[in-house]
Amino acid sequence: MKRISKIMLFLFLSASTLTGCDDLLEVDSNRLVFVDDYDMTSANDTLYSMFGIFSQLQKLSDSYVLLGELRGDLMDVSENSGLYLKEINDFNISGKNPYTNNIKDYYAVINNCNYVIQTIDTSIVSGGNKVMYKEYAASKAIRAWTYMQIALNYGSATYFEKPILNVEDAKQVYPEYTMEELAPKLIEDLSPYKDIEEPSLGGLYSYNTSDSYFPIRFLLGDLYLWLGQYENAANEYHDLMFKRGYGIFNNIYENNLQVTNGAFTGAYVLWGIGLNGWMGIFDDSSLEDITSIAATNDYGQQFDLDSLVLNNMVTPSALAINKWDTQKYYHSTSLDTLGDLRKYGSVSNSPLTASRFITQTTAATKKDYIYKYILMNPISVDKKTSKRIMPYRTALLYLRYAEAVNRMGKPNLAFAVIKTGLSKLSMQNKKVIPQHELSDPLPNYMDFTDLRFDTSIGIRMRGLGNVDKDSTFAIPALPALADSILYVEDMIQNELALETAFEGNRFQDLMRMAIHRDDNNYLAEKVAAKHKSNKEAIKSKLLVRANWYLKK
Amino acid sequence: MKNYLNILNMNRVTSSHKLISTITLVFLLLSTTLVKSESKIPGDTHEIVLTGLVRDAHTKKPVNAAQITVANKNISAVTNEKGEFTLKIKSSKDILSVSAYDYNNVEVPVKGRVSVIIELYSNQFSNYYKELDGLTGSKKNSSIVSSVKSVDDLSKTGILAADEALQSAFGGDVRAISRSGVAGSGASLFIRGINSLNANAQPLFVVDGVIWNNLYDVESIHEGFFSNPLDNIDSNDIESISVVKDGTSIYGSKAANGVILIKTKRGSSMVTKIGLNIFTGITTQPSSVPMMNGEQYRVYASDLLGTKGKVGNDISNFEFLQSDPSNAVYNTYHNNTNWNDEVYQTGTTNSYLINANGGDEKALYYFSLGLANNKGVVKTTEMQRINSRFNADFKLTNSFNLGLNIGFSRVERKLLDDGVNFYSSPTWLSTIKSPFLSPYNFTSSGELTPDYARTDSLGIGNPSGVILTSLNNLKKYRFNIGVLPSIKITPALTLSSQFDYSLQKTIEGRFVPMYYTPERLIPEFGISRNEINSQVMRNTTVFDDTRLTYEKRFGENNHLKAILGWRYIHNYYESDYVEEHNSGTNNSTTINGDFDYLQVKGINNLTKSLSNYMNIDYDFNNRYFLSAAVAVDGSSRFGNETKGGFSLFGRSWGVFPSVNAGWVVSSEKFMKNIDFINFCKIRTGYGITGNDGITDYESMAYFSSIRFMDRANGLVISNLANTSVQWETTAKANVGVDFGLFKDRLSLSVDFFTSNTSDLLVMRTLPDISGLGVYWENAGKMENKGFELSANWKVLNFKNLKWELGMSVGHYKNAVTELPEGQYTTSVYDGEVLTAVGQSAGSFYGYKTLGVFATEADATTANLKIQNADGTFSNFGAGDIIFDDKNPDGIIDEKDKQVIGDPNPDYYGTISSKISYKRISLSTLFTYSYGNDVYNYTRSQLEAGTNFSNQTSAMNRRWTAEGQITDQPKAVYGDPLGNSRFSDRWIEDGSYIRLKTVTLSYDLPIKSNFIQGLNFWISANNLLTFTNYLGVDPEFSSNNSVYYQGVDAGIVPQTKSYYVGIKLNL
């Protein structure tokens, strides 16, 4: 028995060695940051997280634009497009499609946001400010936008607010929400933070990181708009315009045809890249930029839009070109012509070479290509600097506002956004806004008394001359208010095409309007119009709402 | 027992684990009680008087002064001049050990006899009864119960790294595949099949008791090169190498792939001995596969141009068609260059090692200093090694000993990129470069200049220029110091420890020149004219193995050795890599941070592992052997909620038990009359081991740094905590028999084994919501079944002439048996490897072909097509390959892929012969592999017919005209229909038999006080190879990964080499 006890002693010894081994097996790394070691207690910590989130966000940029436009009516494929772009164009998408099988990239943004939101210490105060509150709110906004994209593209989104940090959590089942279910959640989540300022992390090359945030009021406006809570939407949009001074102002981004002796002389005034030409909107010093997603081809990231354009793999649709060409440019009652000047900032056919595929050129073909992307991603600039897309800008804000107030039964107010601009004067001019759309006092969302809005002009005036003076450009007399609303919504839809073509919002806009009209045909007809041989097939496919969404 | 299990909370342990653990523990406790009771039984008191005769097996002449001892009992005798002895033994079951000068020792069981005749064989024969180095120290072969093979003399070979000897030494016991013809590059090793897919599948290296990090997956920046850790050891410093194939549970979670024990020499006697080993040799330059000559190539290239379509401004492509000698470019395109000779040379190898050992009662030491250099068969490549080793044993007091091991080595290499690389590998460029071009430049008027020509108009670099201006080097240092104190607490109980610190540092620099290499477009960066890379790798290991050893004999027949130990490894691996492009000149050859496209990356991995182990060896009367081991392992790599093992102190621990048993049947009385079997041992064992070769930090959630807009750093979640990730578990069962037949004339050893790996690490897709792609899960299963056979026959045994034949066969059948996410493929050098249930690991997965369409009509009838990237379809036409449309839809796509080959051999091993005549001996060794398929990647490039690379002469029969019946498709630029895709066209039978070495050795009859021995030897390697394989060499291993087996990536082949050596003992 003595030996047995000896052996038991050995066992005991070995067990006691184990006791100390928790430390013995503890490891760290110089290269990785472990979750336990990453508590955000200083602004520096959140800086890395914000840049981390931006780096994930840029993976969504190609998909955002291509899904928004190629499925719409303004962008088309060509014989160069390749299988995957054609699949999107034809609503016949295979599982291998790189632009649609990347749903995990959306959740990567969400999960990184979740981590910041959960971890950030919002109580830290420096100089009287809750310094890290801004990052907290900004992360919530980015998360909300990303959730919206999932729900809008895929029909529903898996909703979770805690960061997924281990495999077990990743395998849990979380609730799945459609846009209608998701929007109230997001509204509730965002509302308390709508007055928090955005963080200021400075510039990177010519790219200003202040452009990387999604204003909470814009998001709230969009969410209310989807839900049909139009007054809330109008208020949020209005307050954003008001608080940030976002306006469609005279002599900013305006293009005119030069007139000499009562005739167009063909020369453009205020033309060229700069703050004054409409093309300046897409310049990196744009005043109209509300939110850009920065992208790069560096460090294993991929951003293809400019290359797709230059290789003629996505093209403006004939329908889009025709839309610009058939608008009436109004100088005066005696002088008008056809053609929207915004076309020239949107499409071009002057020769350019591709940046990523150096050997290829479309120069010889002289085909129309989407110039907006080249303006946003200039070839001449060192490629390490920013490329980007611009999901939110001032004109979109105004057109969304118009959509909301129109649906509230104020088509003339909405029409003013397009034709005359929103200012104290417009509000007082009964010809612009008839009495029945006014009240006393004016509701918050109609308050444009501030001096800053005195120079407001209609969105359309920036490309089509003095449309504010064109009496033929008006809402026709229609039997019922409801008819006028639908008429104006159609005009807004048309204006969205002329103004924000190729920017990524087209399909979502058509979806929303069709849903509000409860008329699938509205979307189906518009999109099918772009197609040639398979027009009917596309139309009948899109008459089924389930086909508007991608398969997960 | 139950209580014990409960203490450890072993409810997560699998039932087989439990069973073996229980057996182990029961055995552990029983053996002690058994020992107790056994020792109480009064011994067999009556003595037996045994008389015997010891004689030479051939001459039957008596052997004088042979020593006879009874194993483990203090009884011995010495023969007289008539060879006779008398011994008083106490048991008729005793075993006699007989040894004599110049003879191999033998063991003879008495088996109840009263007189025995013992025949001895010359020590020129191999010896079964030698001592082997096993997992718990050295042991007589006859009493080893696990499957162990050992080799102890690596002199008289021209090898520079220990693993290069394994194939010759172990044959069927280890599947050792030499990596390449680069000196010291070693071999990929697989013991008993393939026991892992995604983790390490290479065996554990234990050098002088210390576990080495084998760095199996560390990639060199030099393409085609593998920095082999074992080239730090001079083969002449090696005392023995043992391969332990089962019963390895003492190494727990590290032993699933078997263990290779390397023991370096130590001082053994107080007599000072000095040894000198010198050898020198040459390596011949490799041959090439038959390629097109200049004129054939010219026709081929113009064919290709015709299919290139729009040439645009590439008009210079046509220059080579210039047939007017008066034209200035004519001379450039009318040469006859043997590019092989431009690149290859005869290699040389020299190795010197001097060692001394000796000492006194207080201390014994071994010291060696070695120097080796090698000039490679590729011009300018070379290797230099300096190594030194100091092993000492100090006897400080009667009970306290201290060992000291110090080793240092420095290996410097000059290298060139190797293998299929259209950019910077001179060997590959020499293969594909058109013979009608010259290495030298011609002036615009057609005059030859002494300057090297730049990349030619067909886009192929100049190998001569690349060799001249490349600057690729590798410097490797390894230093280790080990301290081994040992205290005898009681005569039976020893506490010993082995502490070792090692540092290995590798510095690599690579400069790829401009002008002589083609310009390349680096996606997302731009044009690269040349490239500079640098990599620094550091691996430091702190190792400690402390054990209590209890060894005692109870009574006369019981012997017990128990070990309880703790092993701890702290391994830190760091590597930093920098890449830049466009240095602007071929004189700026080092990284400076200012060139284009700077890229940096690196790894810092800290791994800690702890093992608590126990081993008990028990034998009864040298007839019955039982050995049990159990290890309880923890590692920083394991999650803390693993499915296997148990949890304690917030961590998961794996339990790895094994039991092995042996029975020397021949010592039993009932074998008395079976004369032809003089020795027979049956071994069996079952054990569980693990594989901890999983990625570091896998079990932890972490962020990693990411660049945002080139300037800012961001942190993103890049790994989710995987708390259940754990070791792979391999259960091995083994049954083996060792025979000595016909008075030891024939020895035979057969082992049958099965091993089942569960918890196989497989890649699984994470749910989308994680935002990440994949994670590792222990969910797959794989099995290996096979046998190993070795035989040794003393064919002739005359006084002067002796001949011994040996052979070994290894066989395994590997199959994946469970995959949670179904089959998947891995892309390997443009090919694809399938992992699927029921298939062997590494199976080639591609298209089957049925020849070439001779006519357009045939093609139209077949109506096969492919879908292009833009969604349109293209039809196969005349001259295109007929792919097997397995999924008969008329479209050749991935649904038509099928298994087209298996790189695993059916049989592999060696055949050896040793003939001795007086002092001369001639050893011959054949190695073979049968039934393995090879993916000839080089040929897939050289018979693709898609670009301006020179092609093999087989492409002369390519399809060129309607109606032509041939096996080679037409040449079409860019291969729009994918005729050269991965298909059975590139899969070949890789079976071979090779005359690996022939060694002639002569012992000079010098016996003086000064010179103890002098031996001359000459040796030739790879003299003959019989194979149907179309490549240069059927034996290669481009990568240690299981998926890369059998892929011929065109790395410098092994060639014939010749060595002369001298071995002097003073």
Describe this structure in words.
- The complex is a heterodimer of chains A (552) and B (1066).
- By secondary structure, chain A is of the alpha+beta class.
- Chain A is 44% helix and 11% strand.
- Chain A is built from 23 helices and 17 strands.
- In chain A, the strands form 8 sheets. Chain A has a two-stranded antiparallel sheet. Chain A has a two-stranded antiparallel ribbon with strand order 3-4.
- Mean pLDDT of chain A is 85; it is low at 269-273 and 353-364.
- Chain B is mostly beta strands.
- In chain B, the strands form 13 sheets. Chain B has a 22-stranded antiparallel barrel.
- In chain B, strand 35 (702-708) and strand 36 (712-719) form a beta hairpin.
- The radius of gyration of chain B is 32 Å and the shape is globular.
- Strand 1 (33-34) of chain A pairs antiparallel with strand 35 of chain B, so a sheet runs across the interface.
Largest sheet of chain B: 22 strands, antiparallel, barrel
Tell me roughly what share of residues is in helical segments of chain B. Answer: under 10%
Mean pLDDT of chain A: 85
Shape of chain A: globular
